[in-house]
User: Which sequence fits this backbone?
């Protein structure tokens, strides 16, 4: 199966997710604990993508292969921490967490990590 998501699209999706995680908890009136969790993950997401080798990078410091390794290490943490911290018990936080986790999983699974770099 050909994977439809290329480098630039993956980075753009991640930027959008990061921005959502930075803003949605405040708009949804989530607890301080949930705002800190989503805000921290959102900030790291934006920062990693800002320096990942792509046409929309602020500065190209990380290879796309390194970006993939970061995704594969961070995504399981993103899945586990709301369960361990109790954030998953908050209905709105749980909805944000599950929706964003589904997006993360889809982005990793559908990205063509070996495709040549976009222009």
Assistant:
């Amino acid at each position: 199966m050909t994977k439809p998501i290329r480098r630039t699209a993956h980075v753009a999706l991640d930027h959008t997710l990061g921005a959502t995680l930075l803003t949605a908890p405040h708009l949804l009136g989530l607890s301080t604990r949930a705002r800190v969790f989503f805000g921290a993950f959102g900030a790291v997401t934006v920062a990693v993508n800002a320096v990942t080798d792509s046409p929309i990078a602020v500065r190209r410091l990380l290879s796309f292969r390194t970006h993939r390794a970061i995704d594969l290490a961070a995504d399981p943490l993103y899945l586990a921490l709301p369960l361990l911290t109790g954030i998953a018990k908050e209905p709105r936080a749980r909805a944000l967490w599950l929706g964003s986790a589904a997006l993360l999983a889809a982005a990793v699974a559908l990205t063509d990590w070996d495709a040549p770099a976009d222009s």
About this structure: The helical segments are 7-27, 32-50, 64-85, 91-110.
